[in-house]
Write a structure and sequence with these properties.
Helix content is 15%, strand content 28%. The protein contains two helices and four strands; from the N terminus they run αββαββ. The protein starts with a helix and ends in a 12-residue tail after the last strand.
């Protein structure tokens, strides 16, 4: 999520990591662009096998127990993407390409 903010937005971005309930990690990435990536609304087609980009948010989606995105008020601007993972990730690596 942080790499996407760096590559696809202009302006500032920030990462926040914090402990959540009983051994869980919450990751939040804020950036100044209010556009939420389409992968947060629906499952997009997987990346082509030889593509150099297009897998990052698929990996987040596969490994996170919960995740989401929302735009922020005009006063703050931008969006916040977040994911929460437990200490034992439930990744389904076989379904990713």
């Amino acid at each position: 999520m942080l790499t996407n903010a760096h590559l696809h937005t202009r302006g500032p971005y920030a990462l926040r990591l914090c402990a959540a309930d009983s051994g869980r990690l919450r990751i939040g990435v804020w950036d100044s662009d209010p556009t939420v990536p389409p992968v947060f609304d629906a499952v997009p087609a997987p990346a082509e096998p030889d593509a150099e980009h297009g897998r990052g948010l698929h990996l987040v989606r596969a490994c996170a127990d919960a995740w989401g995105a929302y735009t922020l008020s005009a006063a703050r601007g931008g969006k916040l993407l977040w994911a929460e993972c437990g200490s034992e990730p439930d990744c389904q690596w076989g379904s990713l390409r």
